[in-house]
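Here is a protein:
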Amino acid sequence: MSKNVLRIDNVTMQFGGVVAVDNLNLEINEGEIVALIGPNGAGKTTAFNVVTGVYQPTNGAVWFNDEKIIENHPRGKMKKMYKGECAGAYTKTIAPTPDKITKKGMARTFQNIRLWKSQTVFDNVLIAKHCRAHSNLFSAAFRLNWKEEAKQREEVLELLKIVGLEDVKDELATSLPYGKQRRLEIARALAAEPTLLLLDEPAAGMNPQETDELTAFIGEIRDRFNLTIFLIEHHMNLVMGISDRIYVLDFGKLIAEGTPAEIQNNQRVIDAYLGVAEDA
């Protein structure tokens, strides 16, 4: 039986009167590529932001590698307690910052590319290595950590070779073609040495050829780095061609889950994407 890597339990994310994610439950097992899809505004990126610690959920919990890493059960959200106890007196919160979650082995990319514009390709990836550094402020200030730095630089060069960016390592990140910028952002995430990689619309803005290349690339890095991958994507050819399982959100609610074949033939999913005709 495959190990459970990520589990989202009854997560709700509310902004004022807007419920962006409504009681979401999903699981991802080791080695899987799992897609989260849905129409624009369905709550997909909000779910990613909860999982990675950007948002603290209004209610619910997130488990990563059998550890509860995020939890929020505010007053009044608990089930009825034992007789004689106050049902609304329980509040429990676990809310680590995104950097702490990254150190646990989770890394992500963003819907809008977020590269350091004034830095080279090499330095964009090297910066991500710092979350695995063992040196402290003193050793870094006096360059006592030079062996660790040299090792990190070697690792970055090797990673750039693997992702096909070694020949542009000294160029500014923003000088790259769009498809290579996307690849660079994934390389930067890989530099953090994750076991779970979250990709938020990695094919956004790509032409068909770039999308096909990205599809193959995601499969390759999953196998090469022994990754589990959780992705949001609107390109259905990519989603159906690479996903082991798919979850579908609509207005924050989970409306379907299953294999690509099951999702393609799910009438509720079809209605969510195409709309339901009003009765005459």
About this structure: Confidence is low (pLDDT under 50) at residues 77-89. The chain is about 35% helix and 25% strand. The CA atoms of residues 102 and 181 lie 21 Å apart.
